[in-house]
Amino acid sequence: MRYRLLGCLFLGLGLTVSGAAAAASDINGDSCFQAVSEERYDNAFTLCENETEKGDAEAAMHLGYMYLKGKGTVRDWDQARKYLEQAVDQGNLMAYKYLGVLYWNGLGVPRDINKARELFRQCLKFEPGEDLSCTAQFAETLTFGSNSRQNAMEAAELYSKLLKNRNYEYAYYLAKQQVELQENAAAFKNIEFFLLWSKRYGDLSALRKNITSAQKLENSLRGVIGDQESRDGFNWARDLIYAINHEDLPRELALLGYSADEIPVKIEKIKESDHKKQPENDNQASPAPDKQESGDPAASGK
User: Fold this and answer.
1) Which member of 99, 225, 230, 287 has the greatest number of CB atoms within 10 A?
2) How far is residue 19's CA from residue 49's CA, in Å, rounded to a whole number?
């Protein structure tokens, strides 16, 4: 079972490699995607520039992403928009989500929430297979710098979708939105699960910050929910971990909220996906979204 973790957000300037180094990389079979996926942004920037000039839509998307986030180059939202629009025009659907971030936050463009929503809608409409990065990106964009209850409700729904699709690291983000919505018992349940799951299956070095925050949230929630709700939340989290650990898929899906009619259909989809999954398929996915960081208007841009 694969878990997609959010990558860390690093700000500042990067360095580009020389033409000779880039040429050597090309000879060795390096590519824009490979360098981006391995977070070698100094190499990636030059590789993606070269591939974009040759008309590669995915490379243009990655180049726009790097300008959006200041990875491997200076942060430049005008350049980000230019290359993301180029990628969209060439048919790269994943570029929609980054354009959505620009318009949602007004980064290098007039702020336009309606246009941002439409861009995300297009990305979600064609979101492929197990790659739910559009869902994750939109959920985080909805919650960045906003206290809107409607946005929190919409984000919680998206995070629930991610959790139901066994992207368990998002239980933490779902719990945070449930706290905003004053759904404290549900939030406690998901915090307990996140803490149990992360210690058993998660990348502890990558999740350390979220684990620390989750522990603080867990303690604060214990002070506002009743003893029975606390016990129920822990038992739910424990049972879900037990089901995952023992590969009890029907029980796992039931705990995640699937109905009796939905469970057989979901099991077949999981089996079909696992059967088709090949190691090289990982090279076809877009980079996972970054975690949010407060104070950065582009932090919701993945």
Assistant:
1) 99
2) 11
What are the CA-CA distances from residue 47 to residues 16, 44, 57, 215, 283 (Å)? 10, 5, 13, 41, 16
pLDDT digits (tens, 9 = 90+) for 105-142: 999 999 999 999 999 999 998 886 667 899 999 999 99
Identify the pLDDT of residue 297: 55
Sign of CA dihedral 110, 114, 116, 122: negative
- In whole angstroms, how large is the CA radius of gyration of the chain? 20
Q: Which long-range contacts (CB under 8 A, 24 or more apart) does 51-57 make?
A: 52/83, 52/86, 55/90, 56/32, 57/86, 57/87, 57/90, 57/91, 57/92, 57/95
Instruction: Give residue-wise pLDDT tens across range 7-52.
Output: 332 222 232 233 333 333 443 568 999 999 898 999 999 999 999 9
Q: Over the stretch 142-162, which tens digit does the pLDDT of each residue have?
A: 988 667 899 999 999 999 999
Chain-centroid distance, C-alpha 134 = 7
Tokens 């239980």 belong to residue:
171
Count CB neighbours of 296 within 10 A: 16
Integer Cα distance of 227 and 215 in angstroms: 18
Average pLDDT over residues 162-166: 93
CA–CA separation, 10 and 281 (whole Å): 27
Distance from C-alpha of 134 to C-alpha of 96, rounded to nearest angstrom: 9
Residues in the chain: 302
